[in-house]
Design a protein that fits this description.
One of its GO terms (biological process) is signal transduction. It is a single chain. This protein is 58% helix and 14% strand. The protein is α+β, with helices and mostly antiparallel strands. The protein has two domains: 2-70; 80-227, Reverse transcriptase/Diguanylate cyclase domain (Alpha-Beta Plaits). Helix 4 (111-118) packs across helix 5 (120-137) and helix 5 (120-137) packs across helix 6 (162-175). The longest helix is centred in the N-terminal third of the chain and has 36 residues, at 35-70. The radius of gyration is 28 Å and the shape is elongated. The N and C termini lie far apart (88 Å).
Length: 235
């Protein structure tokens, strides 16, 4: 009997050691034939059930907090800090593998006029619609972020180039062909301005690539204004 008690207690002790060492809350103590040891084993397993549930809850909470910290609340795209980290990581990886990739900088045409004329709720709808359209055009390995206000950026995963950027913008324009219905009931045909930069030709750092893409966007915007002052969207 003594040997049996020691053996069954040893089974519980072995699980307890593994749980403490590896934080593996899914382990359970083996069943025991001796009533007192079985009671101890049952209580220990019940405690492990509670600890496993708490661990799962904490993991979900941490994942939720991480998502909140990394994403823009309105659009659910990456926020500026997270996008720049992703861009820096891509630059490091592309440099190591001698690859190129493209970065796009975009903003919504006439956004201030939309906010002033239709209210901030309408502006939010425009930003959310643009975010959904951007996500619909992303491939595996791409990323989109809201940098602030109506400014967005897209990272086209390596290998990509200016041709990839043009292809992305063509796809985005298709996404935006249908008018947006604003909270006021008015309809808006949303236009976007875009510029692109390519690593490493236009820059090797996140800041440099975004700056070059931003400048390219404003060149494109001013060029369209010069050709047609009404080209930026339809209110």
């Amino acid at each position: 009997m003594q040997k049996l008690i020691i053996k069954q207690l040893g089974g519980i002790a072995s699980v307890a050691h593994a749980v403490r060492s590896n934080r593996e809350m899914s382990l359970r103590a083996p069943t025991a034939s001796i009533a007192e040891v079985a009671s101890l084993s049952g209580d220990f397993n019940a405690l492990l059930d509670e600890l496993e549930q708490r661990q799962t809850h904490l993991r979900f909470e941490n994942e939720s907090l991480t998502h909140i910290a990394e994403h823009d609340a309105l659009t659910n795209l990456l926020n500026r800090a997270s996008f720049e980290r992703r861009l820096t990581a891509m630059a490091n990886d592309a440099a190591a593998h001698d690859q190129s990739f493209a970065v796009l900088y975009l903003d919504a045409d006439q956004f201030k006029a939309i906010n002033d004329g239709h209210g901030h709720a309408a502006g939010d709808v425009v930003l959310q619609t643009l975010a959904v359209s951007l996500k619909a055009c992303l491939r595996s390995g791409d990323a989109a972020g809201r940098l602030g206000g109506d400014e967005f950026a897209v990272l086209l995963g390596a290998p990509s180039d200016m041709g990839s950027a043009d292809y992305f913008m063509d796809a985005l324009h298709v996404q935006l062909l249908n008018p947006i219905t604003l909270p006021t009931g008015d309809e808006l045909l949303l236009g976007v301005s875009c510029g692109a930069a390519v690593f490493p030709v236009d820059g090797t750092s996140a800041a440099e690539l975004l700056r070059k893409a931003d400048k390219a966007m404003y060149r494109e915007k001013h060029s369209r204004r010069a050709r047609d002052p009404s080209a930026e969207g339809v209110l």
